[in-house]
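Consider this:
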Amino acid sequence: MKTVTISGHALPAIGIGTWHMGDDPAKEEQEINAIRAGLDAGAKVVDTAEMYGSGNSETLVGKALQPYDRERVFLISKVLPSNASKAKMEEHLDASLQRLQTDYLDLYLYHWRGGTPLSETISELDRLKETGKIRAWGVSNFDVADLEELWQLPAGPNAAANEDLYNIETRGIEYDLTDWQAQHDLPLIAYSPVGGLHNELGTTMLDNAVVKQIAATHNVSAHAVLLAWTIRNGNTIAIPQSSQVSHVEANVKATELELSSDELNKLDQEYPSPTHKVPLAIN
């Protein structure tokens, strides 16, 4: 099983994303069962945010985690840019903790850059770490220039991870960001690793003939192949979202799938790596 170390924790490289979950009361039991199935299959990372359903996702996750030893789960949430100031952040963190029914987060991410000076946001994140309400902090939707600016701040190199959109069809960050993060020992958390919900990214990768052929060779799903590709470098945790128990279980098993160099080359031919800088993909 592939693992990635974040803030001293060796974590399975496939976690559980919860974007778009928690909004429909009729689906609550199914979604709770899916999160629990992922944990039971060996996942540890559960990723949510105050933005997701205006807190509904955090509430759902809080319910799902109740039967589990809190120390067994690596829980991530995120603060909105509008709340990432010294005046507001702790209040919003406390609200997230209440919805999640816990007294700490393993990782608290600055969801994306907003109007608050970066120095103020990072100073407050670092202060909240000292309170024990968060055990580590990081950033999300940051590109190389953002990270270089972050690293110039006194507490900047304390960042534990950066979460960006990344999948085989959206490889722009490979031009410079993935190398930068590897050189600075900053793990990547990949969201939308198999595209967005309801194909909102217009993806073709699940239907690609080469992806399907490789999946058939290994007797796994196309999702599993795409996830194994996303985590192939050993510095990336992927957080696919699914409300289906069987899908979540299959996703977690993708940590054990090794793609051969020949298979990786075939996938590169289908979805080439970038040859120039492109704007950071955000969804």
About this structure: DSSP finds ten helices and ten strands in the chain. Residues 12 and 134 are 21 Å apart (CA to CA). Residues 118-131 form the longest helix (14 residues).
